[in-house]
Amino acid sequence: MSKLPEQYRFLDLSDYGRPVARFIALSLKETPFTPVHVTFCFMFTGILGIVAMYHHYYLLAALLFVFKSILDAADGELARIRNKPSYTGRYLDSVFDIILNFMILGTIGYMTNGSILYTLLAFFGLQLQGTLYNYYYVILRNIFQGDTTSRVFETETPIAMHGENQRTVTFLYRVYLSLYGVFDRIIYALDRSASKSSGIPKWLMTSISTFGLGFQLLLIGLLLVFNQIEWIIPFFIAYSLLIFVFIGIRKAFY
Questions:
Q1: How does DSSP classify residue 150?
Q2: Which of 134, 182, 207, 208 has the most beta carbons within 10 angstroms of its beta carbon?
Q3: pTM for the model
Q4: Residue 143 contacts residue 153 (beta carbons within 8 Å)
């Protein structure tokens, strides 16, 4: 199930695992398995991928990273199929994502004897890329009445939805802000007017979707499979320059 109405959907290159994710979600619909359980499964899968990578099982690591991306989509799919969105799942998903991203790049930096500064720059760039993609995507979802669990501006603690615990939502929201706040503020400072636009064209969103975590993990997996692990950190540092290109296009024409 897409997060946007059909007429506004774009080709999301980071969402290649959606059909499998939907199959998994449909398979779990009538089971006690919850979206949060799926979120914990993707965290565990990501950790297994890091372990496989550390031991030089690069193909296995790539497959696990891709499967992690599929499970990352499956938890939201299951919530939408059951019509039970939650802030708990939304924030937990994001917290697990950033932890795994840090662990993946940190492990790569360690394995390649890379500079700590370059590793941190790659991580910072990776997160800014994902933040820009999510920023524009959430704007579209709010404009066109798509899924609105994610908010354009995280400025106040949300009220827990039916079936959620407010203390849990508040805690996860604060953790989310501590981890993502700086990235959100940077992207907002770079493109304050995006939320006032009438929309972002599909071709531009498709291009920006290469900043989505699913596509990022796919690229990491491909570089691992081709035994180019030492290029992963330099690549994501350089690839971050496209942030300014995409924002410049958005500002100039839309």
A1: S
A2: 208
A3: 0.92
A4: no
Look-up: residue for tokens 């997160």?
127
Q: How long is the chain?
A: 254
Residue 252 CB neighbour total at 10 angstroms: 7
The token pair at 91 is 């924030």
Q: 200: which residues sit within 8 A by CB, 6+ positions away? A: 136, 139, 140, 194, 250, 254
Compute CA 80 distance to the chain's CA centroid, rounded to the nearest angstrom.
Answer: 17
Return the structure tokens found at 144: 């066109």
Q: Rounded to whole angstroms, how far apart are CA atoms 15 and 46?
A: 17
DSSP labels, 56-84: T-HHHHHHHHHHHHHHHHHHHHHHHHTT-
- How far apart CA 230 and CA 237 sit, in angstroms, is 13
Q: Which of 21, 10, 150 is nearest to 78 (CA)?
A: 21
| pLDDT at residue 147 tops 70 | no
In contact, 223 and 235? CB cutoff 8 Å: yes
Determine the longest span between alpha carbons in the chain, in angstroms. 49
Question: Which domains are present in the chain?
Answer: 8-253 (1.20.120.1760)
Q: Is 11 exposed, middle or buried (0-12, 13-18, 19+ CB in 10 A)?
A: exposed
Residue 12, CB half-sphere, CA atoms under 13 Å: how many?
Answer: 19
Round to whole Å and give the CA distance between 166 and 33. 21
Per-residue pLDDT reduced to its tens digit, 177-228: 999 999 999 999 999 999 888 778 899 999 999 999 999 999 999 999 999 9
The sign of the dihedral angle between the CA atoms of 152, 235, 47, 222 is positive
